[in-house]
């Protein structure tokens, strides 16, 4: 017969469990912000693609009408586009950007904008002009500063 001291302990001690929980917590604290940043960049990329699609719709409007004017809903010059979805991403039910025609400066130029909403709030405005100039107000201060004149960040 075996004595009590001969039994093998099975399982984990409280210290071992606390160490594992601490390590998992540290990993989560590092991974979660990186995940959130990746999600925002993906949504911003989808908005950039939607702006390019809206630019193509503006070009089709110009081809038919010989002007960019009247491309917004109700034949207006600014506002939600009439020939393209007014929110991005184009797929899915949750939308993170509003797409708008902000300035057909004359019959031959335009500026379109993707403004963040909901989960993207505070992520800065994306803008594209008919000349191909791209802006991103990354710090969301209402001014496109030096270094904010590109989308690739």
From TrEMBL:
<protein>
    <submittedName>
        <fullName>Type IV pilus assembly protein PilE</fullName>
    </submittedName>
</protein>
<dbReference type="InterPro" id="IPR031982">
    <property type="entry name" value="PilE-like"/>
</dbReference>
<dbReference type="InterPro" id="IPR012902">
    <property type="entry name" value="N_methyl_site"/>
</dbReference>
<dbReference type="Pfam" id="PF16732">
    <property type="entry name" value="ComP_DUS"/>
</dbReference>
<keyword id="KW-0472">Membrane</keyword>
<keyword id="KW-0488">Methylation</keyword>
<keyword id="KW-1133">Transmembrane helix</keyword>
<dbReference type="Pfam" id="PF07963">
    <property type="entry name" value="N_methyl"/>
</dbReference>
<feature type="transmembrane region" description="Helical">
    <location>
        <begin position="12"/>
        <end position="32"/>
    </location>
</feature>
<dbReference type="GO" id="GO:0043683">
    <property type="term" value="P:type IV pilus assembly"/>
</dbReference>
<dbReference type="InterPro" id="IPR045584">
    <property type="entry name" value="Pilin-like"/>
</dbReference>
<dbReference type="GO" id="GO:0015627">
    <property type="term" value="C:type II protein secretion system complex"/>
</dbReference>
<keyword id="KW-0812">Transmembrane</keyword>
<dbReference type="InterPro" id="IPR000983">
    <property type="entry name" value="Bac_GSPG_pilin"/>
</dbReference>
<dbReference type="GO" id="GO:0015628">
    <property type="term" value="P:protein secretion by the type II secretion system"/>
</dbReference>
């Amino acid at each position: 017969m075996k004595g009590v001291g001969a039994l093998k302990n099975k399982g984990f001690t409280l210290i071992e469990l606390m160490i594992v929980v601490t390590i998992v917590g540290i990993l989560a604290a590092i991974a979660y912000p990186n995940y959130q940043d990746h999600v925002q960049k993906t949504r911003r990329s989808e908005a950039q693609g939607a702006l390019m699609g809206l630019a193509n719709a503006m070009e089709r409007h110009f081809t038919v009408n010989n002007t960019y004017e009247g491309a917004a809903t109700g034949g207006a010059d600014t506002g939600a586009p009439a020939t393209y979805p007014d929110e991005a991403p184009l797929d899915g039910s949750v939308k993170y950007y509003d797409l708008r025609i902000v300035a057909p400066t004359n019959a031959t130029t335009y500026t379109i904008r993707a403004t963040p909403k909901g989960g993207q709030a505070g992520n800065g405005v994306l803008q594209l002009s008919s000349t191909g100039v791209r802006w991103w107000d990354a710090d969301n201060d209402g001014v496109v500063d030096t270094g904010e004149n590109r989308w690739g960040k």
